[in-house]
Amino acid sequence: MIELAGWGKETSPFHEGEQFIQERCGLKEQQEAMGKMLMRPFMPDQHRDFFSQLPFSIIGSVDKQGQPWASIIFGQPGFISTPDEKTLQFDTQLFADDPLINNIAPDKPLSFLGIEPASRRRNRVNMTATSSYDGRFTALVVHSFGNCPKYIQTRDFEFTREPDAPSKYEKDTFSALPSAVANIIRTSDTFFVASHNHQDDQNDTGGVDVNHRGGQPGFVNVEGNVLTIPDYSGNYLFNTLGNFIVNPKAGLLFIDFESGDLIYLTGTTEILWEDHPEVEAFQGADRAWRFTLTQGIHLKQAAPMRTHFGSFAPTSLKTGNWQDAKKTMALQAQRKEWFSYDVVNIVDEDEYIRSFYLKPQANQSLLPFKAGQFLSIRLKNPSSGELIERTYTVSSSPSDPHYRISVKREDAYDNIPSGLASNALHNDLEIGSVIEAKGPSGQFVLDTKTQRPVVLIGAGVGITPVISMYRHFANAVHRFGQSRSVTVIQAAKKTSNLVFKNEFDDLKRKITYPTRYFSVISQPEFNKQAPYDFDYQGRLNADKLKAMLPDELCELYLCGPSEFMQSTYDNLISLGIEDKYIHAESFGPASLKRQKKIDEVALTRSKNKPAEQALVGFSKSKVEQTWTPKEGSLLDLAENHGLKPNYACRNGLCGECVVKLKQGDVAYKQVPTFETSNDEIVTCCALPAEGSDKIEIEL
Fold first, then answer.
1. Strand, coil or helix: 581
2. Alpha-carbon distance 254 to 687, whole Å?
3. Element of type H or E holding 31
4. Residue 341 near residue 357, CB atoms below 8 Å
5. Is domain 454-584 classified as CATH 3.40.50.80?
6. pTM score above 0.90
7. Distance between alpha carbon 223 and the CA centroid of its chain, in Å?
8. Mapped to the 3 state alphabet, what secondary structure does 618-664 carry?
9. Is the N end or the C end of the chain the one with fewer CB atoms within 10 Å?
10. 686, 696, 689: which is closest to 636 by C-alpha?
11. Which of 298, 58, 87 lies closest to 190, judged by CA?
């Protein structure tokens, strides 16, 4: 550990809640070092100068019941002074009905946000009160640190009366959100949030924290007494969410900048993680949180100033709103249905792989997906007229206005016939053709909860999820400030088989964060040689991987022919990389043999004996069916009786068919490698267990 800004080797500026989320994002060590540089036990001179010019500031406090509150105080510039680098003085007139007036007392924790919307500057101080008199108070600095300008909309402020003059306003208290308050919140583009870590070590970790939240109007969803707020990419300190982990309470302050209304709310919180459907549907959200109201105060026309809106922060414009998110969730619900798509372009990527660009027909929308997922398509067998179903990875980015599937033509060789579907696509589809597809699906997707560096490894047609993920990163850095470093390793037989090589090169020029591309050619053309035309010759082995991989811990994504994947996986393991950091596309029986412990949940269920007969209930579909061994797995049973469950590999590998088990227990006919919790089952491997006369699953 480094020693900076007065921090010792054993002292951290972060408590366990903040560290939990930083670890979840793979950033704990990085943020520990950054926090020691950023979070000072004193105010630098530039912060002191900045505070002295502000006409208002935000204060976070905690009441006697332990509830956080966010408040606003006003004064002519200079009402905030700093006699020295450790002391803040606030010469202001508090509103008699602001909870802050009762929350200031010696040694009580407070938090101060100095924010200047016109310049998008903000600096924060966590502090403890030392004295107060008639609303004027003094505090001692615990932490002083700056914040980035993200999501701050510009506004100009002007006083409509002297801030120290008596304020005449109407007060309304409530425990259920009034419609007028809900409407203000729904149209807000800014609010402030206070939280409290509820720890004994507030001198180390700050006690109370108050900060800014911004987005486009509609970024706060209101349903009854519950608000849902997206959490965007920021500085990864996680002061607010870290406090929610150890003490799930918050105080919110909304300001109607036109009327001067002030809305104070306090209540409880719940974090929605990155895989929550609402988070996945909200553009730009890394996670989200819900706030449930306990108590509220509405001071009408209380603020002594009004504002003139300037412009949205560039980062705010790249984010979404709940109206669009709900449309996206509605589309997600349709992903099991078949839709018709027009073939709008066809591109030969090499002598075997051809890309087909698909757009939805009129009155349809492109269903959202994650980079790495696949499309299930169906087309007619040209000889028999029967429908053929296949899955192909989407090689376009989630932000592209189309789907692109890149299909390798499987020619006949030895005693193996040619691929029926791939040849039908290559030979019969042309621009203007129509193809049917279900919404994208699949579990081979980027782990978005971590910010660790990414390594994408692809060979042959296995480069399709890699280019999709790489396109996603290229678009994410432009839209959301994505900054994960990316390494691409592409293996091919010849340089002419480096599918998407030009696309990788074009995208690399657009990406501003660290990104690298390596090509490995096993049998190069006679006029091609390393390192001029490609990077490495021969097969991908441990030595080559060691030379290309980042020095730091990273997440690896692997896709390609089965022998290539197995050998690459084994080489990565030999280099000391843990299995949990290696993600691999695995469809069909030729899957990876992983070097890891079998999941205890799966192992226990594999020892259960199958029942001879059982009643199976499908809770979502409101269907009950009798199961006997001839029905096969629970996935088979569902399909046999007209249900349309998700599935992909049918071998317990991918997790696409995992559902909640609500009653009874199951036995596994083969041990799935996809890990589940006790209340989940892998339906493609599951049978009712002996002793469970009835089981119920969420399908």
1. helix
2. 53
3. helix 28-38
4. no
5. yes
6. no
7. 23
8. ECCCCEEEEECHHHCCHHHHHHHCCCCCCCCCCCCCCCCCEEEEEEC
9. N
10. 686
11. 58
- How is 535-555 classified by DSSP, letter by letter? SEES---HHHHHHHS-SS--E
Q: Taking the domains of the chain in order of start, what are their residue ranges? A: 16-159+166-326, 338-437, 454-584, 600-697
Nearest to 68 by CA among 231, 214, 261, 267: 267
**Percentage of the residues of the chain whose pLDDT score is greater than 90:** 64
Spatial separation of the C-alpha atoms in residues 150 and 130, rounded to whole Å: 32
Residue 126 CA to its chain's centroid (Å): 28
CATH number assigned to the domain covering 16-159+166-326 = 2.30.110.10
The share of the chain scoring above pLDDT 70, in percent, equals 94
- Amino acid at the residue 676: T
Per the CB < 8 A criterion, the answer to whether 571 and 545 are in contact is yes
Three-class SS of 587-600? CCCCCCCCCCCCCH
pLDDT in tens, 114-151: 999 999 999 999 999 998 887 789 999 998 999 889 99
- ∠ at Cα 82 (79, 83), nearest 5°? 120
For residue 19, report the phi and psi dihedrals to the nearest 5 degrees.
-65, -35
Does CATH number 3.30.1840.10 belong to domain 338-437? no
Smallest CA-to-CA distance from 444 within 382, 370, 385, 516 is with: 370
Integer-rounded Cα Rg, in Å, for the chain is 29
Give the residue among 532, 491, 494, 517 at the shortest CA–CA distance from 350: 494
Q: What is the spatial distance between Cα 441 and Cα 446, in angstroms, rounded to a whole number? A: 13
What is d(CA 371, CA 260) in angstroms, rounded to the nearest whole number? 45
Q: Identify the bridge partners of residue 40 per DSSP, sorted by sequence position.
A: 144
Asked if 35 contacts 136 with a C-beta cutoff of 8 angstroms, the reply is no
Nearest to residue 139, comparing CAs of 116, 163, 164, 111? 111
At residue 385 the predicted structure's pLDDT band, cuts being 50, 70 and 90, is confident
Helix (H) or strand (E) holding 432: none
Per DSSP bridges, beta strands 486-492 and 515-521 are parallel
Integer distance in angstroms from the first to the last C-alpha of the chain? 50
- Shortest CA distance to 128 belongs to which of 77, 86, 97? 86
Q: Is there a contact between 17 and 243 (Cβ–Cβ < 8 Å)?
A: yes
Q: Whose structure tokens read 């300190």?
A: 237
* Helical (H) or strand (E) element with 51: helix 45-52
Query: Phi and psi dihedrals of 183, rounded to 5?
Result: -65, -40
Structure tokens at 53: 């010019």
> Could you tell me the two tokens for 686?
């599951």
Looking at the domain that runs over 600-697, which CATH code has it been given? Answer: 3.10.20.30
Strands of 31-84 (E only): list them. 56-62, 68-74, 80-84
> Under a CB-based contact definition with an 8 Å cutoff, are residues 572 and 582 in contact?
yes
Strand order in the sheet with 374-380: 387-393, 374-380, 434-437, 339-348, 353-360, 403-408
- Which of 587 and 215 is assigned the larger pLDDT? 215
Three-state DSSP at 191 gives: strand
